[in-house]
Amino acid sequence: MSDKRKANINLANNASKSVLSLTSPAKLNVVSSDWSKMTAKRSANKVTKRHLSSSSTLSNVTNVVSSSKGSNNRPTMHHVPQLLRRSSSFFKDDLEISEKRPSKSQDSDDILLNTDRFIPLRSEHSFTLSKIDPSSFEVEVPPPNASPSTHLRAQTKRVFKQNVAEACGLDMNQRILQYMPKPPLSSVRKQSYSIGNRTHYSYSNGYANDNRKDIAKLRKINSNPERILDAPGFQDDFYLNLVSWSKKNILAIALDSALYLWNGEIGDVSLLVEFDRPGAIASVTWSDDDCHISIGKNDGNTEIWDVETMSHVRTMRSGLGVRVGSQSWLDTLIASGAKSGEIHINDVRIKNHIVSTWDEHRGEVCGLSYRQDGLQLASGSNDNTVVIWDTRTSLPQHIKRQHTAAVKALSWNPDVSNLLATGGGQTDKHINFWNTTTGARIGSINTGSQVSSLHWGQSYSSNLEQREIVATGGNPENAISVYNYETKFKVAEIVHAHEARICSSQLSPDGTTLATVGGDENLKFFKVFEPRKKHQFGVCGDEGILGLLSVGKNCDDKSKRSPARRKTSDYLIR
Amino acid sequence: MASSISLKGSTRTVTEFFEYSINSILYQRAVYPPEDFSTVKKYDLNLLKTHDNDLKQYIRKILLQVHRWLLGGKCNKLVLCIVDKDTCEITEKWEFDVAHNSKMESAHQEQIDATETQKQIRALMRQITASVTFLPELSNEGNYTFNVLAYTDANAKVPLEWADSDLSEIDAGEVVQFKNFSTNDHKISTRVSYRVNE
């Protein structure tokens, strides 16, 4: 008997230690508060026990006791789970008391008393794995309209929690990680399927992208625009895409019924074309060769203009009679999205230019974007869906309905080819990140305002690349917000960048400056990202993986980094 | 000092094994066409290894990171899933459990001979090759792709290309356990689970 007690005391001693190690770091503070309650209860408990035999006046403290006292079928020792005894740290006290009254029935009473604690009866399984409910560890993300410093505080809190967990030597949840880039196609089918020569896999070797010491920093960006241009007559319509910036640093903008070209090098403006009907232009997009521009019009036609000669090249008729509000080029193909929901794939070289019609959307298609390698096309629509199309089969690969408003902002990550960011409109306010290979949503940010455009960029803190995404918004703050992709925290913000909502934005060819145009008929240029640096870590050499493991050879991977842009002479438009 | 060296050597053996086993599986299960592979002599066996540069780079990038995790003792499982391109469903799942001996009690830490390890790996590679006979045929050939999952500690450093994933279980699948092999610091156990054809 006494041996058994001793063993129990030992168990209890162990338990008091194991409480710490079994508790999640996220719950550490909870434990401490429970602790005080426990001690309070413990003292109450002592009182209860002393008066237990005489009356049940204290039964309000322990409900179970009174009920079980009345009934005969008391739970016996073996009904009490082993773990219950082990995990309760105040057994020791109970045992001490029961030692004073060594009777068998009293002993079982003690055990009974222990059952009335609010000790969670967890299964042995969950304890042995010492896993934490991941939901308990979720960090509450601050409200989207909070200032970057609030975000910083939340971030510091998370880092602190992690440090505490580490200091306690706790093993937190294990993570299941998937290598996101898509496996390459086999050599046989690569030849038949590759569209253009844009396929390039070059990923940052991200050695210390998640070095947490470096995350907790605010970015400083200039909240004053570098330049402001007047944009009189700019149509304040969320569903239109009226700005486009070419790789040759020429920005095309549609003002009312005219299309203007602004040269970023020298700053002069030229008028490309003026249509008769007011508001005739619904979308403007540069071709991949940066020599041609396609103009989607209100009557459903798409016109292609040559900017070298400033001349009209051809008109493609959709035959739908509704405006073409979004376009995306892929070599000689233009995907154009109509108000009625159809997406036409036009081949500009042939007479019957519509090579296929994709009819999946039930609302106006307001965002269209080809992936760099052309294997997928993302489309966002006023029916609140994002569709990721397989361009080889012309079938929707994934249809995503998580957004609750029109999806206009679409942006493919330049490094990870199957990472897509989409932003929802006024009632949605979220940015979602997708793995377009599996269709899984891999992240989400509440921005607190409609998302009219998204662009990927980067900054560097102590020479480590931070991948970031910039979103332009509308009411209430008309802000430009920069988020860190890894942490999903806001790292910089320009509030009231425009007096009215921001309708569109484009990133400059060097990826640093954002041109935004808003309902206030201004075109403003903000420097939001740092110029992209050459990546330090490259993998080269051909033979055997083991040769690379010991020495991290540096090699010049500039050729890999620079996107494989086609030469303009690669194709001709007739 | 000496132990750190042997840990490196052991991790190398494990990573090398992963490289050859992934190549073998991709060949045996015809995820990539046979033309992409050429025969190499390894573990006294004729194994097939891809000579397609893109695929080679792809596997290399994965394993470089896995190697880094293994060195830090952060990785405890590597999973190769064979996925149907049409349905995005996992048809086959090859799991390699990694147990770090250093984490276990050092009481029964007998030194394992390198040749013994090679022998065990050889037996395991033979089993993987032989598994084609009982695994269900992958209908419509060439319509499969693969992805790689790594089970790591939550505090492991994670590069941008790696993102959290779900368990990717196969419902009502069958599991076949293979032979194990162990090095001084690691113990690898392999098993395959697969969907049973109705």
Automatic annotation (TrEMBL), chain A:
Any one of the GO BP annotations: anaphase-promoting complex-dependent catabolic process
GO cellular component, one term: anaphase-promoting complex
GO molecular function: anaphase-promoting complex binding; ubiquitin ligase activator activity
Domain of life: Eukaryota
WD repeat coordinates: 281-315, 358-393
Alphabetically ordered keywords of this record: Cell cycle, Cell division, Mitosis, Repeat, WD repeat
Region (Disordered): 43-80, 555-574
Amino acid composition bias (Low complexity), ranges on this chain: 53-68
Gene3D superfamilies reported for this sequence: YVTN repeat-like/Quinoprotein amine dehydrogenase
Residue ranges of every copy of the CDC20/Fizzy WD40 domain listed in the record: 229-526
Pfam families reported in the protein's UniProt record: WD40_CDC20-Fz
Bias type Basic residues, positions: 43-52
InterPro entries: Cdc20/Fizzy (IPR033010), WD40/YVTN_repeat-like_dom_sf (IPR015943), WD40_CDC20-Fz (IPR056150), WD40_repeat_CS (IPR019775), WD40_repeat_dom_sf (IPR036322), WD40_rpt (IPR001680)
Family: Belongs to the WD repeat CDC20/Fizzy family.
Name of this chain's protein: LAFE_0C06590g1_1
Provenance organism: Lachancea fermentati (Zygosaccharomyces fermentati)
From TrEMBL, chain B:
Pfam family, one: HORMA
Source taxon at top rank: Eukaryota
Annotated HORMA domain residues: 8-192
Swiss-Prot/TrEMBL GO biological process terms: cell division; mitotic spindle assembly checkpoint signaling
One of the record's GO cellular component terms: mitotic checkpoint complex
Protein name: LAFE_0A05248g1_1
Organism whose genome encodes this protein: Lachancea fermentati
Key words of the record: Cell cycle, Cell division, Mitosis, Nucleus
PANTHER family according to UniProt: MITOTIC SPINDLE ASSEMBLY CHECKPOINT PROTEIN MAD2, MITOTIC SPINDLE ASSEMBLY CHECKPOINT PROTEIN MAD2A
